[in-house]
Input
Amino acid sequence: MDYDSVADELYALRPEEFTAARASAMASARTAGDRELAARIGALRKPSLAAWVSNLLVRSSPGEVEPLLRLGEGLRQAHQDLDGAQLRELSRRQHALIRALSLQARQLAKEAGHPIGEGVQREVENTLHAVLADPEAARAWAGARLTKPLDAAVGFPAVAEGARPQRPAPAPAPSRPGRKASEQQRRRLDRARKEAEATERELRGLRDEAAAADRAAGEAKRQVDALQRQVEELTGELERVRSEHQQARFAERTARERARTAGRRVREAGRKAATAADRLERLTSSDA
Output
């Protein structure tokens, strides 16, 4: 037993299972004589519902983690030197991506037995905004051990229509290093755009898969309900047949008992008849 494995196991549980499992892990650590580990486990906080959903997204879709982290890095680098039109396009992609991920998280929560409302979904979206904007938030989210939603107050500033971010006045003749920095910036922007587009395509595919899985689950539920009705009907028929079988066995036992009683009476009557015949024969012989 070690701290990381216990923490990973606890934060992978459903919220209502967390407290009891934490107490059990603490007891196991104490039994093993590791009081320090027991204390560290006891300090682990139960996640809020939004934090649990955010952790669930990381654990259920590990392939989404690294691309999103790379996209956040690219966005933070590219944001410093983009014009208004580029920022608005990048912001549109960012919001579309976060919306898609939050919908995916909502579907995962539903499949895990914890449907969430709009309020919790907004907290998940705020967490994802913080992940893209802040490297510390990104690392915390990727660890899948959040106990509360991340603060989205730290984020990319909005860019008004026609506005441009402030930048130093251009030099009369741009130097070679300036052109090199601009080229690097364009490459970072292209890389961020490609990663955003790839992630959006992947998320569209995941949404299609989730919709197909939801339809399959609905069909499976209908089949289960139909089979359950058949089971109930067959169970009722089985109970009826069992009752009839028990009645038939009772009738059989009763008939056998009556047959045995009748047999005894027949044998007794036979003995009496034989005795009477003997007596009659003796009387007849004496009269003669």
In short: The chain has nine helices and no strands. The radius of gyration is 41 Å. The longest helix spans residues 176-287.
